[in-house]
Fold:
Amino acid sequence: MPKEKNKFFLGVFTDEDDVKPATQACADADFTFHDVFAPYEVHGLDRAMGLSQSKITWVTFLCGLMGTTIALGGMSYVSWWDWPLNIGGKSPFPLPAFIPVTFELTVLIGGVCTMMGLFALCRIFPGKKARLFHPRVTDDRFVIVIEVDEDFDEAKCREIFTRHNAEEMKLVDHDYAADPADAEASVEGGAA
Amino acid sequence: MEIQTQNDDFSDMPAELRQEAEQVSKSRRDFMKVTGMAAMGAVIAGCTAEDRIVKPLVNKPEGITPGVAYQYASTCQGCSANCGTLMKVRDGRPVKIEGNNLSPINGKHRGLNMDAPKAGALCAVGQAQLWTLYNPDRLQGPRHKEDGEVEWSKLDAAASAAVKGGKVVLLTGTISGSSANAVIGKLKAKGAHHVSYDAVSRYSIAKAHADTHGKSAVPRYRFAEATVVVTFDADFLGTWISPVEHARDWATQRDLKFGRDSMSRLVAFEARMSLTGANADERHRIKDSERGAVLVELANKLGANLGAAGKHSVPADVIEKLADELKSAGKRGLVVTGSRDVREQKLCNWINHTLGAYGTTLDLAAASHQKLGNDEDLARLLKDMEAGSVSTLIVWGCNPVYDLPDGEKFKELMGKVSNTIAITLRADETASECTWLAASDDALESWNDFEPVKGLHTLAQPGVRRLWDTRNGYSCLLKWMDDADKNKEYRDVLKAHWEANVLNGQSWGSAVEMGFVDRSAANSKTQPDFRPAGMGDAKAAGSVADTGALEVTVYESYNLRDGRHAVNGWLQEMADPMVRVSWTNLALMSPTTMEAQGVAEGDIVEVSADVDGRKASCKVPVMRQPGQAEGTVAISLGYGRTKAGPIVHGRGKEEDAVDPDLLAEGVYRIGGNAFPLMGTTAVGGSISKTGDSIRLAKISKHDSQEGRPILKQTSLEEWKKKPNAGNDQELPSADFTIWPKWEYKGHKWGMTVDLNACIGCGACQVACSVENNVPIVGKEEVWRRREMHWVRIDAYYEDDSPFDGNLTKNENPEVGFQPMMCQHCENAPCETVCPVIATSHSEEGLNVQAYNRCIGTRYCANNCPYKVRRFNWFRYEHHNLTMNLALNPDLVVRSRGVMEKCSMCAQRIYEGKRNAALNNEDVKDGNIQTACAQTCPTDAIMFGDRNDAKSTVARLEKDPRNYAVLAEINTRPAVTYLTKVRNRPAKKSELALEHDAHAHEEH
Amino acid sequence: MNAKLAVLFFLLTVGMAMPILLGIRSIPDIQLPNLHTGYQPEQPIPYSHRLHAGVLNIDCQYCHSGADQGRHATVPSLDTCWNCHKTVAGRTKTAKESIAKLREAYMSGEGVEWKRVHNNPDFVYFNHQTHVRIAKYIDADGNISDGVDCQYCHGDMAKNGVAKQQEQLAMGFCINCHRDQNERHETANLPARAPVSACDACHR
Amino acid sequence: MGHVYSPLRKPLVDGDKSMHDITHDVCRSIEGKPTALWWYGFLVSAAVLGVFLVVTGWTLYEGIGVWGLNKTVGWGFDITNFVFWVGIGHAGTLISAVLHLFRQKWRTSINRSAEAMTLFAVVCAGLFPLIHMGRLWIGFLWVAPYPNLRGPLWVNFRSPLLWDVFAISTYLTISAVFWYIGLIPDLATVRDRAKHWARKLFYGTLAQGWNGSVRNWNHYEKAYMIFAGLATPLVFSVHSIVSMDFATSVIPGWHTTIFPPYFVAGAIFSGFGMVLTLLLIARKTMRLESYITLDHLESMGKVIILTGSMVGLAYGTEFFIAWYSGSIYESFAFINRATGPFAWSYWIMVSCNVISPQTLWFRKLRRNPWFLFILSIFVNIGMWFERFVIIVTSLHRDYLPSSWSYYYPTTIEVLELVGSFGLFFFLFFLFVRVMPAVAFGEVKGVLKMGKNYDPTGASAKKHVPHDDKPAEGTPEVSHA
Structure:
């Protein structure tokens, strides 16, 4: 986030087939994206925005590995190191019998950590207030939010947005947030 | 174990304790207080630490440490065999009864290994005697029929008056003791009459001998001397005269361990399938009415000239062969019969005499005193009562209203007697008809003496202070007859009598410590001469007409005997070992007979018959019994008591499902009373369906082993040719394993069961239940297959016919018994699957179960191939608090929801190790015995250290007969079995294996 | 993935797992909270172990005479107390009162209801004789002594007035000692006297 | 960059729905007043749940003895129900995760409720191993390896039952996480439509401030893929591990190496059966015919016939191996299954699981919702009996004939089975009332799928590019 609070220029779209090329065009024009908003996952939009691949895979991998280590280490400790009991005449270190729990713990710890990693990377947490740039951005509107910085050329941006059938364009303050309660109104407006 | 105690009872306790205890009133709660004080560790109640109170004694008696058990010798009074016992007394209460290892009646060499210490055998009934002691349903004080509870003084006054005038009759069971007879002699001296009778009478034997040998006595049978035994309905391994002694003796001749290679032969002719018949090498099914004819024919074949025998179904060549066998056995042959017909007994006597058996296999000189009942005396008494000439009747230790064939009539006749007094443990059928009920001590809280065999005097001493306001029966008699000893404790009377008559200078202390004094060496060795004239019309027994009607056979049940143990929960639940249906007696019929009669299992039928001109009937459910003679129905005695009171088990009161109307009247009855159907000769009768049926509480639902190699067996012939005959199953090597094997460095406990010796009596089962606090659960739970016994006896009916889904169809199958307890597998499937390690393997080779760790998933039980784990489905508790005193304090009572199983008596193992360590020595083979091995009358179960090369168990591991059940699944059990060898020609299936083996050898 | 990264991952993973494992390892040494340690109920007679066992130096087994004879160490019967106290009247006021109580309890035959301090649960079998008379205790240096000191499990009673539970006496307490001793017995070549650490030694 | 929409593809959403229509259609059911039908279903299931609570309470109070089990048959309805419900719990994750990995877009309309079904089925399943413990009050704690006063005594990692503890709890956790992650965007939509403060707070908390940022979608897409990747082997592992409860034992009929794949196939079979049952009900009562189309049903029908035949093959294989092993115990166990006292349960199993699905070879039947509904019920019954057959018939006659016995279930056990359905449906009704039952976020993503569908097939070769870029060579992919 820039230190001095820039204004935002946003364009609202209704079709993913419009927003994707529009984003691409904005990226090509070297505009600084604040963000792009979509009601559902639009494949390729992140790439169009110029985002690289998510790092969350590393979280999963490392935590999964940790799960494996904890499982194997813990089970070896419990059955072999701490008190090797004679159970059914079997070895105190029955490796094949450890496989299921090792697998489960790998998945469990990997999975739970991935969830927490996702929340951390997305910076979301229970109680966080969602900042919306359009009342219906979680329903059926796509919004491209461009930061109004030194590279920004409003005319060019308007041109790009219009070319891609933007429903609405406006310049807003940096603390702008739409109220979802306006959604119904905008539905009627949109329908008209 | 050695008797390590003072030679006395608690009346010799230090005066202070006695004083203190006497201050406390005798109510039950106070009793708890006394024992609570004595037992420092006894847990009173509560689960939080803050609540636990410990109240030490004010004065501690010398020589008794709280928490330490002491053994006291005594005599079992469960039946009239009078085996020697040792009471394990802890904190003033007996917690276990075991056989006295020194007793000539039931002491045995452990594992037949002469170096090993001896152990004392006891049957299931003996093991279960604690129940009677602690059951609070017995009389807790003297009573009057109408007035209820009375003072002793009032009763004494009335009884003394009654004893003084008129014709006084004392009616008892067998009373053999020297001092006991002295007391009764004193009463007789005052003009009273003494009549004794046995509910299940052996008077016919005495009577026959009176005629044929001039001596009215039951001989002492010595099965240890016999090589050929022929039994005609005498269940000598189960209930006949002195079953523990007979079983022990018989088994010594069946032993093929440690190089012995000969076996006695047992041939049985019987109508019902008895325990003896099940163990016979050859068994023939005959109706009761055919018995005489077979005896006559056998006698004829042995040289008697009794004329043609009547009709019977046994092929002539069988009898011919048997006669040859007997002839070659000579004086080592023995023929016995359980018949109540004197003529048949005489035929027996003739055969035994002809064989020359008197003096070897049966001894009339040193006769048995175990059945002294005199049926003729009884008949006279009945006549006198009818005539109204009896003014006072004292009934003691017997229950004629219940157990006389015509009990109803006896009850009627009692009305004609002006004074009726019962000396009794409980208000049973007879006592409740008496005016006065003198509450007698239980056998375990009173002094007594016996002479089971001529010259063998045994003592019974109390193991506990009287629980309630009761009195020794002899003290009662002495008081009532106003004897000089009337104010003495009976112990002192007994002691004085013994010192004068029995001890012969031996010290009283040593007699009490031993529990008996053996003077039988002084017996004459000469047998009375046979008097041919005495035979009389014996041959007429051979021509009893077969009416063609359904014959009714009644027999003494193994568990309840003549009914005196009907309120014993342990015995009710263990069931008769042959029938294995708990909590009722049954009308047993062969499958074919059942079909012919149109009845099904569980149908309640009324069996009725004309017995000696009297109409009698009995209502019981039907059960199929393969091996029973066609056209017969067998019902066991001992059930159907109406005044025995309820039995309280882990699920509450047991109720009779046969007759709910009775229950509504508050009468608890289990099964039907078959005594009315008891006749001298064969009884013809009929059965009719009542339309009701019940779910039978069967211990086992399936009797065939489906051709699986579980109970392995062979014949003597084959075994002689090939020592591993019957045990030559090829197994994959058990040595291959992907894991390193665990080593057992110190002890490695194990058990060997000799299937040749196991007679299936179930003594181990009850011994185990008593030792290990195993609960009884009642009919409903047993029906659901939830009996808790840690050791069960599997009975397999050997059968060549194909699997029919339920029971064998073979009409005369062979039976094999196999005790099955936790096998303590080295590779235990149960251990692996427990999620919380509630079960694991000890370093001494045992599969241990930590009950308090168990969470009750039942996975271990599912995964147990032997199905020996028992789950506490409910909280099984003793609803009667005094019954808790019978619990063994050395191990816990399992709560609900946990799995339990045989621990190989861990508490006894640790005790043995502790004792060895105290003496700074290694554990000797035989010094540690599990409860089952300890009591086994035939030493079928042997326990020991498999790592000790000299131990019986380790030596038997090398025996070619040794095998592990289900060895093919490689569980490596610590319990192994020895192949059963039958002394009969090999069967085809057994031969086939042998030929295969030969074929292999040739290649 | 290059080799450097692989090493980094491995180190990271182990780095994450080790503290957890070491944490578990250290747990048996941490005394987990226990309901019973420190239990010191008020007794009907405030019997002072400090005075009797400490100052007067009376042997534990003089009173707890069952300890080498059987399962229970036993709370002494009143005649044991009275043996001395028929002549010893006590000096302090408390002592005099207490002895008067004892006298009353003994003479009347009422007895004293003590609160039990060391309570094993019902499902635990413990035998004093085994530990006091039979066992050999081998310390860390290999010195063998006959019997386990009372103090090992009961703490130093002479420190306290009224009896108090000082050790945890939970299964961990027992089994850790059993297993240590087992090893030391092996080392000292005393296998026959090695304590059993199988379940059935205590749970049966 | 844009989408190419193949004319060969049929639309996944019928009717001409806009994105907002979809939002509205789905949210309507959780925003408006519940329908009478919902109330009816909810109350009935709550009542049945009440029965479950009562009988389970009684079982805990009185002891496991209130069931009909005995020393030979230690598991009956309890573990049968457990395995049954775990099996049901398989299709949800499978539909969601595996189909996601395989890019099967038809999953979108059903995956949410299928996942919910998984979750609730696993909840029901997890209850039974708990209830079946003799001492639940300590057992639930003691199966966890936590440091304790017992010193070095932990848990037994050799025990398949402990593997179950880990497998089921992992499966429940990961399924819940997967479900919740999928829900977040939809919850954000619901939040933004909410009027009442309480709803705002509730959905706002759960949606965690999600605002559709593509920066977040970037991580989300990856994470979702990872979850799908984790959940897929998990689906297979869970029932494999459950099968090891039996496969690692020594009891003939249990000791079977083919159990893991056999159980997984059976689980998918039963899971699809249950999904079908629920979908057909939901489709009818919630008027979701536009979203759950006949094509969906047909696809599921095909899965059922495949897995049903696999299960049939497994039954045959077991018999073959029992004979081929030459073990008398093993062969008897299977003969006893088909002809013994429990033969009735065996033949119910075979007719429901193997014979009845074969009717689905006919396309007409595959596309007949009523027929499919009846069939799915058969499959559910059959699969319950499969577990019953495996558990009870193997146990009741194992090695020693002396211990052979029968098993008479008690009313309590039957009520617990019925009651568990009460719990399941109670949760399900709660779910459809509170959470968006269709993953409308994902449906919107496939809305355009098949919009160029040409039923005549005439335009098969004639691609209609939507934007300026030609899409030659990629006619079949749904995205570039």
